[in-house]
Amino acid sequence: MPQFGLFAAAVLLCAGVGPRGESGQTPGPEVRYFGQLAPGTTPVRFAPGVVSTQAIEINGVFRPDFREFFFARQVDGVFTLFRSTHAGDRWSDPQMLRIFPGGAAGVAVDMAYSPSGRELYFLGRFKPGVPPMQAPLDIWVTRQRDGQWATAQIVPAPVSTDAAEAYPTVVADGSLYFSSDRPGGLGRSDIYRAPRRSAGTFGIPVNIGSPANSTDTDGDTFASPDERYLIITSTRPGGFGRADLYVSFRAAGGGWRQPINLGDAVNTSDTEFCPMVTPDGRYLFFSRTYGGGSWETTTDADVFWVDMTVVERLKR
User: Fold this and answer.
1) Chain centroid offset of residue 68 CA
2) In angstroms, how far is the first alpha carbon of the chain from the final one?
3) pLDDT tens for each residue of 63-115
4) Fewer Cβ within 10 Å of end Cβ, the chain: N or C?
């Protein structure tokens, strides 16, 4: 969830009607996406009436084996995790999952799985005795224990700091991409990469530099597992709306190429953000908000999906 304007705040099938799948195995293509008709190059709402409803929903992320799905819904003004699992021959009804200490309410949004699927990183806003929307923006992680998600913990410095950190993405070697407005950046918010250490901790985050980062606000970045491309949310000039989605491909020398706007097939005069590519690389999930430049004026927000052709055709 970006840190400017709307960045500034911080149909799953129901049980009993799900499509058939084999228990204990990765669901096949006809099951993975809950029986939804696959989109083409025009984005459509994902799971209308269940995920994309009259409430405000953002994010959409599958576990690597497609047996779990998370999204975030605003409940009493606070973004909260909702989870559905695939077991036997169907998907469960989405259920709220509170994983802060004591089951307390707090902002939990912008989720990303580790490659193993046993860690879930997210943007959290939680501090005992502090209203959620006044708590610091930090990167949190919850880990699976005996098949259950344990109480979440802050990912400590040098990842989480006194600045605002948001939107984690984990790549194949376990390194972490995220955005931050910490001092020394190029713009109001920049993208950083923290290398994974062998002990499961992270090294000093490195600003990925320009042109992926600009003098405007850049964040909400999905990094492909092989780090071949980044899908970036940015307010840089030349876009279609308040914030647009861009793709930056890896340059031959190891840096990042100039980000390319995904175009008016994806971006609108509203805000497009929260990109996440499915584990099979077939679809781009993202979020779109309506109704103004802040969460207070937002009238709706939904999860969309579109064929990855809209990204791949831009590679030069």
Assistant:
1) 15
2) 29
3) 999 999 999 999 988 999 999 998 777 788 899 999 999 999 999 999 999 99
4) C
Place of tokens 């077939």: 282
Q: CA dist 225 to 193, 202, 208, 299, Å?
A: 13, 17, 16, 34
Q: What tokens were used for 286? A: 């993202």
How far is 125 from 109, CA to CA, in rounded Å? 9
Are 47 and 37 in contact, with CB atoms under 8 Å apart? no
95, burial (CB in 10 Å: exposed 0-12, middle 13-18, buried 19+): exposed
Residues in the chain: 316
C-alpha 5/C-alpha 273 separation (Å) is 12
- CB contact at 8 A, 175 and 121: no
User: What is the DSSP code (8-state) at residue 137?
Assistant: -
Query: Which of these, 198, 197, 202, lies nearest to 165 by C-alpha position?
Result: 202
Q: DSSP label at 52?
A: B
Nearest to 62 by CA among 96, 20, 26: 26
**Domains in the chain: ranges and CATH:** 5-34+41-312 (2.120.10.30)
Q: Following DSSP, what letter does each residue of 33-44 receive, concatenated?
A: TTTPPPP-SS-E
Q: Whole-angstrom Cα distance, residue 174 to residue 96?
A: 27
Residue range 17-53, pLDDT digits in tens:
233 233 345 666 666 787 788 999 999 999 888 888 8
